[in-house]
Structures are given as structure tokens and as C-alpha cells.
Amino acid sequence: MPRALPTLTILAAMVVLAPGGSLHAQASPDLPTGSRVEWAVEKLVGFGLVDDRIVSVRPWSRTEALRLLEHARSNLNRLSPRERAAAEAILDEVRSSDVERGLRVTGVAEVTAMDSPWLAVPQDTNTGSVEADVNHLARYRIGREYVEGLTGAAELDVEGSLGHRVAAEFRPRIWWGEPRAGVGEGGVQVLQAQARLQWSNLRFDVGRSTSVWGPGRNGGGLLAGNTRGLDRIRVSSDAPFQWPGFLSVLGPTQAEVFIAVLEEDRAVPRSKLVGYNVAVRPHPRFEAWFATLIQSGGEGAPTASAWSRIADHLLFIDWIFNGGETFLFSNKGTSLGFQLRMPSWRHAQLFAEFTLEDKGHNLRRIFWQDGAWLLGVWVPRLDVEGVADLRFEFYHSGYRMHRHSQFRSGRTLDRRLLGLGDVNTDGAFLEVGINRPGIRATVEAGVENRSADVWDARFRPDGELDVLEKIDDRPDEFYLRGLISITAYADDGREFSVGVGLARVTDSRFQNGATRHDGVVRVRAAVPLGPGF
After folding, report:
1. What pLDDT digit, counting tens, does each position of 464-516 carry?
2. CA torsion angle for 205, 207, 208, 210 (degrees, to 10)?
3. Helix-strand-coil percent breakdown of the chain, rounded to 5?
4. Distance from C-alpha of 214 to C-alpha of 225, rounded to nearest angstrom
5. Contact at 8 Å (CB) between 112 and 520?
6. Do the Cβ atoms of 98 and 147 come closer than 8 Å?
């Protein structure tokens, strides 16, 4: 905690300088990522009604979601009569209880039948270590447990605001599974459990919570919605704030910093994870962000001097002032990205993010072998009314992404990767959404190529790693998948969804000629149980 305290203090000072309106003096819980309120805001951005929405730091609080909806409503006069009627229909679909303060209790029941194996990330590629299991049909479910077979689960989401300055959330999950092979299993998961204290625009959170960083549907290279919440202390701004003086050219800014303690059952038990993210919108059409995760400490971790630890958290200090020497007592990943909105294309949004694993001199190693890329386009309105939308994303994860030699479990939590995608993987998907009153349906087609090739390091004369050279070319595992999801929303807050996914995998488990077929069927129902509905 002491080595992160200066950064926490500086960020708190910057956020407090921003004037927080009466709305953002009120604490509220976080809005679930992917909820229909978030979808409604994104559609309204597609009508050009929201100018300062930050997408690369999520989730938003319910108070921030309410502000964005009110901002959209105040700008309806920008639209033609036909567009205005469509935007008003979207606003009318969002219930007041979705964003209002107070106590809400929701019960969720889910049944999932899955014929798709959990596979360990290959460890024998000679590119570092990571202890993670992946399943391309069960990703981005905030760490929920599923077995290859039948899984049933019940969740309770309890959240509320206690006065104007305090909010809390608790989300336990009970699950049980009947695997296709083996005996039944089950357990209790606490997906979220946090308390929030808010003063003006400054939020101080303690407990288990989730962050999604990046412009993609599921996040970015450092943090995606793939794990349960991190156990952490977090300081962040609730709404975008304005910098004072000449820094005001940066425009509306969203900032977040946290320090988390990772789990006991890993190669370096209870190692620390410090995260920073700053996103700016200098123009209503343009957003840019910088984020980093630094893993260090823990039981048996490499030791370092106090100065080295401080310098490591000052970001790029080892690149600029440290004589070319890299700090080897931490595992650091850094992301840079932007999003560009195109009003003439019905406010389509182009985005790109690059995640750097390690510094180096060889550009091929920096930008491809070690790095990760996310490129995409989001078209919120294929037609004038926004009935149909489209999203395309391409992602690449390099050979050493998420891996590390000292922190052998890599950037993971409970054997799930913190960031987007997989290791040694290229993939893309195209998703089309259809929106009708009370219903949203999506159809997705995707491909993915996973590699388990073995590499050797080529070094420079000064002893630094230059580039990786392939020494064993194994068959790549190739996925071709299709997913269909339909969600129905009732006026009283009930939700019901069903999803079906099928995939064909060639060279399965990196074995030449091996083929398998994966599938998943998921049925989910959410029902309001308490006051506020």
C-alpha cells in the first residue's frame, strides 16, 4: 500500500478539483456491464445525443448512467422527427428503477448445458509461464464457474444507496454441476462485494469489484470481464471531470487507480496488483486512454529497494532514466488506445488499442510477438431508427502476453486471464444486433486461431532479448463458431434470455487432423425481489 499511496493522493486531488454537481454528490452502486441501460446509452451515442461518454473505463455508476440518459434527453432537438421518435422510444424503455437510488434486490436463476472442454494454456512454449484455463464458449462471464456438462446456478444481487455518500453491493452465487465425466461438484462464489464512500465526484471503494478497461465489447488487453471482482481499494471519478488551467484542453477525463491483493492459491501467493487508467475526450468525437497493470510483491516474490519500487510505479521510468535496465521484480503491462466517432456514418465508432508486455529494441517483438492488439468498429445504427446495429472486432495476443518468468501464474485470477482473448491467439468476430421494444437479439460469427509453437530467444550483443525465433511449428487449433442470443425485458423488471452456441474445432488440442464439435445452451431468468421495483 505505501508505494501506491502517492499516486492515490495525486489522483484524489485531481478529482476533487473538479466541480461535482448535486447529482454526483450522491453515491450509487455500479451498473452491471452489458446491462440494457448501458446498451441504451450506446445506442443514444449513435444518435449523436451524448458528447462526453467515456467508454474505456467501465462500469459506470447508476448515477453516471442517469446523467448520460438525461444528457441525451436534453439534446433530442438535434434530431429529425423520425430519429427523435426512435431515440425517445429507447429512452422510454429504460425504467426509472434501473438508475434510481435506493435498495434493489434481484434473484437470478441460470441453467447451462455445455459440451466444450476447459483447456490449460500450453506451458511448454518456452515463452514464460501462465497458469490459466480457457474455454471459448464460457468466457467473459465475470468468473462464473461452469462444468463441461450441466451447470445450475442461483444468484442474489443486493445493492443500494445508504444516504447520499454511501453505497454497497453484494452478489453471491451458488452453483452445482454434473460433469459429463466424473462426480458432481459445486460451491459458493462471491462475484462482487464492495462498499463505496463518495464525496462530490470522488469515489472511494473497498472490497471485491470489477473493472472493464478498453473499447471492446468485453474490455481490452489488460482488464476484461473474464474474472470475478478483484479484492482491492479503488479511488476513481464518478463522472468525467475537467482539468484546471492549460490542461483543460484534454477535455472530460475519467480516472481510476487501485491496489488489489491476488488470491492465495497461485505461484506467488497474495501478490499485489496496482492499476491506473486515465481516459480523456479532448473532442466530442475522439477519446484516448492510457492504462497499466503492475504486479509485484507477495510471498516469495523478488525483492527490490524502496527507490526501485517507487520508480517502477512512475511508469516508463526504467525506459527513460534507468540506463536501459528493466525492473525484473514486477510484471507490467501497459495499454494505449483511441476511439474515433464518425457522425457522417451514423456515428459509427472506430477504435484501436495496443497493449505492451515488455520493452525492447526489435519492433517485430514489441508490436507483435510481445504485444496485443484490439481493432474494431461499432455501428450503432445500420438503419435510421437504430433497429439494427453491427460490431466487428479483431484481436491478437502475442506469444508472451500474460506470461512472466518470476510471477509464474501470470496476469490471472483463479486461473482466469484478466485481459482479453487468449495467449498466442488471433481472433475476430462479427455481431449483428436486432432491437425491438422489450427484446434484443444478437447473432455472432467468429473465428479464432490458437498457437502452441515453441520459441527460442535471440539476444543482442549487450545481453538484452532481441527477438523470438520459432524452433517447433506445431499445428494451430482453429475455431469456427456461431452464437445466437435473445433477451426479453418486461416492464416490471423481469428479464429472460436464452443463448445457443455451436463451434467446430480443427487440429483440436494442437493435434494434426483431430476435430471436435463444441456447443452450449444457456437459459437465464432475473426477477426483482425487493423494494425499488
Report:
1. 777 788 899 999 999 999 999 999 999 888 999 999 999 999 999 999 999 99
2. 10
3. 15, 45, 40
4. 11
5. yes
6. no
